[in-house]
Amino acid sequence: MLSLRGLRRHYGDVVALDGLSFEAQEGRLLGFLGPNGAGKTTAMRSIFGLVEPDAGEVLWRDAPVDASVRRRFGYMPEQRGLYPKMPCAAQLSYFGQIHGMDRADADGAARRWLDELGLGERADDPVEALSHGNQQRVQLAAALVHDPELLVLDEPFSGLDPLGVASMEEVLREQAAEGRTIIFSSHQLDLVEALCDDVVIIHRGRAVRSGTIEAIRAASEQRRVEVTFEGAVDWT
Ligand code: ATP
What ranges in 161-226 are assigned the alpha helix state H? Predict the structure, then answer.
């Protein structure tokens, strides 16, 4: 289980995380839902030590998350974290190696992932030659290449066309079915509802709801949370 406990982080006067606490159960797919600026990226970066919280802690299996634990995690950032000029296969192998794989294993896993995502023929092309959707897939593969115990994805659906969304959904479903622990952030309720076992709703740096998708839906209906035709939600 991953536990975020009482995370606080401010930037000047802006409170990005205001005592955020939630848990992600192993082998389940958790949707981290909230409007722009709610603190999703800051929370995810905290898991990876990319943001130093002012207070609070992040635990994996009841132990603090340090660099050696993080090597067993995979992170897909919202902003591109790829090297545009590097060939896809070399790039994935590189990510495998920085997560502790030896060269041969990383090369093999890189090719397997590219095949798996339908990009086998693009293995030697530089990332910048690929479409946005395909770059997003390579970014996903970079987070998965070392077979992480926990996969954290920041807005993996952003900017994808309907085919790209369907393909991303399929990979996440497959990975969840294989028992991987997955957290992904989104501000799209419909995607979270379609995919997730559990949901955490974050608003102004705090978890305002958390639970199974069924429990959240029932509570939302009771409280008459309005979902408009645009998918906008009353987050409070
Ligand atoms: P989005 O969906 O827009 O990415 P988010 O839920 O991921 O939003 P964060 O990016 O975590 O939210 O931002 C939370 C708050 O902290 C916002 O008000 C944001 O402007 C602020 N913030 C985040 N990073 C920084 C930073 N490096 N410097 C200053 N303010 C920041």
Answer: 162-177, 189-195, 213-222
